[in-house]
Specification:
Elements: H1 2-15, H2 56-59, H3 64-74, E1 132-134, H4 148-158, H5 166-173, H6 184-193, E2 197-201, H7 206-214, E3 219-225, E4 233-243, E5 248-252, E6 271-274, H8 275-283, E7 289-293, H9 298-305, H10 311-328, H11 333-345, H12 349-362
Helix pairs in contact: 1-12, 4-5, 10-11, 11-12
Length: 374
Amino acid sequence: MIAILAIGTLLAAGVGAPRQAADRQEAQPPALGLAANPVERAGPPPWSFREPSVTPLQAAGGQAEPLAQAARQAAAPTPVPTEPPPTATPPPPTPLPPAPTPATVPVQAALPTATATSPLAPSAPVQPLQSTVQLTGFRHQWQTWNNCGPATLSMNLSYYGSPLSQADIGAVLRQFPDDKNVSPYELAGYARSQGFQAQVRANGSADLARQFLSNGIPLLIETWLEEQPNDGMGHYRLLVGFDDANQRWIAYDSYVHTNLVSEDPANYQGIYMPYAEMDSLWKVFNRTYVLIYPPDREPVVRAILGDAFEPAAMWQQALATAQTEAAQNPNDPFAHFNVGTSLVELGDYAGAAAAFDQARAIGLPWRMFWYQFN
């Protein structure tokens, strides 16, 4: 730990002001004839998020009515025994029948099928990998100042029917004007607060992203953006499609307005980005992505990720990827930095410190440390 603290001191000394005083400096995207307001896409989203179920007792306002009926039965000359419910099938989702006393029908008996999640079946309905995909039903938004995180999350959630805007999300995640960055963990936490499943994952790949998109699940990815030399910064994008024949992604971008899929400002469909270019920008952040999906898609997600669904296995695989890239190109600072990030998650702090030192010795962008939270 002393080694880590010492390295942290060196890193801080190399980058200047702390995160509270300096962060990403994204501007609002130039208009260039494009719509300044979000473009509402017609057509229903492919899924609608289901509201949490309500038990029969909750829907009826508690047990007041069953108790009243029980009291009336108690006053009759001859008690009428209740017929026990059938055991072959679970009770149907209708109000409970009256019972002599509340204790004879426990609340748990009304909820045999109310489990929110289901175990992964070996035959999870995973669709095969496609050669071209373009998901639709998103609501695009051009970001306001330094607001690419809330804007991209808003676009992601809109796919599942959410009406939340970047202003709604930013009011929660960026409550102070000087807060210029939202971490992937904050984005995932907000999505979970809206009832979705959300994970922050590392070691993404083109094959993995194409598999998720082939199964109707977009990916919110953390990438580098450098429009001018030595002026790079972190930037979120939303992968919504791909085209193997032309080796390019389709991404919803809240800032970049070049290589548009559609030149019609009223019909935004994303931007094209070559596979190789996107991977180089994604690698800067250890290919981090935020996976957001409705709870009923959990079996599909587990089937696609396999062993890597568990964090320990994911970080072992991320380490192997980074070590391979560092061996192939010893002068790649991001490969060494990703080795360090993975080793931190695996508990090897001395090895992480050495990898971070190697990355710094090679040379990192001056804003690199603005986006490190561990």
